[in-house]
Specification:
Elements: H1 12-25, H2 30-40, H3 51-64, H4 70-81, H5 86-98, H6 108-118, H7 121-138, H8 143-151, H9 155-163, H10 166-170, H11 175-186, H12 195-208, H13 213-220, H14 229-235, H15 241-253
Helix pairs in contact: 1-3, 1-4, 3-5, 4-5, 5-7, 6-7, 7-9, 8-9, 9-12, 12-14
Region (Disordered): 247-285
InterPro entries: ARM-type_fold (IPR016024), DNA_alkylation (IPR014825)
Biased composition (Acidic residues): 262-285
């Protein structure tokens, strides 16, 4: 049944959230739940539902309610989020992603609120890299908000302020507008010692290098004394070897900051950049 803005029952958002939750619990797997909780170092309860199945549950309700108005969209997300269950909160993130074309700049306050309560890249990266990024593509006036996020000391909000530019710099069409902004946002963050900030900076520059590897090399070259090895290696992953190798050699000869995790690149920590499990929506073409 398709809902309309004019004839919605008042409890429709709660009913939609309940339908999504029912679909999630139908796929619950206690063994997977234990492993996911351990992997994410999560304090939330876990159903043990695979990300693709969470997406299917969200898409089914999105398809059933194409005309849901803005307030209803937000109410569903909040109804899902209120329970401290990882898959419900992931569904809330994916729900906002599914209706990203209905969101407005004022909804950045909601995104910041949820990011602040996420506590894990597995939720943050959908809200920031996907939802906030899509919002910026439609509403460039959200830019100052994301700059302000990146300037905050709180780690997840800072990471989000960087990841919000991932989709804009990945697109060849919008790259010229947003790559200079990314540079301004990222430059003062290069010496942040935290893994999740350093990896986010490198990830977004890596996406920019898909179409403009030379610009990424040129941006990194004068900053080799401040950029971490983690950020640099991540940023250069897709850069041609003949351009990457000289920069890495120069970095090794410079007094760049050490990686905070002490293992060189930290790639085993799992940070949602899409390389490992392919579940992160921001890595879709």
């Amino acid at each position: 049944m398709t809902s309309t803005a004019a004839h919605e029952p008042a409890d429709l958002p709660v009913r939609i959230a309940a339908a999504i939750d029912a679909a999630l619990t139908a796929h619950a797997d206690p063994v997977r739940a234990e492993g996911a909780k351990r992997y994410l170092r999560s304090e939330l309860a876990h159903y043990g539902v695979a990300v693709p199945d969470v997406r299917v549950a969200v898409r089914a309700q999105r398809k059933a309610h194409p005309a849901l108005p803005h307030d209803g969209i937000v109410a569903v997300a909040r109804a899902l989020w209120v329970e401290p269950v990882h898959e419900r909160r992931l569904a809330a993130c994916l729900w906002l992603e599914a209706y990203a074309d209905r969101l407005a700049p004022a909804d950045t306050a909601l995104l910041a609120e949820l990011i602040g309560e996420s506590g894990t890249w597995a939720l943050v990266d959908v809200l920031a890299g996907s939802v906030a990024g899509r919002l910026l593509l439609r509403h460039p006036e959200a830019e100052p908000v994301y700059r302000a996020w990146a300037a905050q000391d709180e780690m997840w909000l800072r990471r989000s302020g960087v990841l919000a530019f991932l989709l804009p710099v990945r697109s060849a069409a919008t790259y010229p507008q947003w790559f200079p902004v990314l540079g301004e946002v990222a430059d003062p963050l290069l010496t942040d010692p935290r893994f999740f900030v350093r990896k986010a900076i490198g990830w977004v520059f890596r996406e920019a290098s898909k179409h403009h590897p030379e610009d990424v090399v040129d941006w990194m070259r004068p900053r080799l004394d401040r950029v971490s090895g983690l950020t640099l290696r991540e940023a250069l992953k897709r850069v041609p070897e003949e351009d990457k190798a000289p920069l890495l050699r120069a970095f090794r000869g410079a007094a760049g900051p050490a990686d905070p995790d002490g293992n060189g690149d930290g790639d085993g920590d799992g940070d949602g950049d899409g390389d490992g499990d392919g579940d992160n929506s921001t890595d879709e073409e």
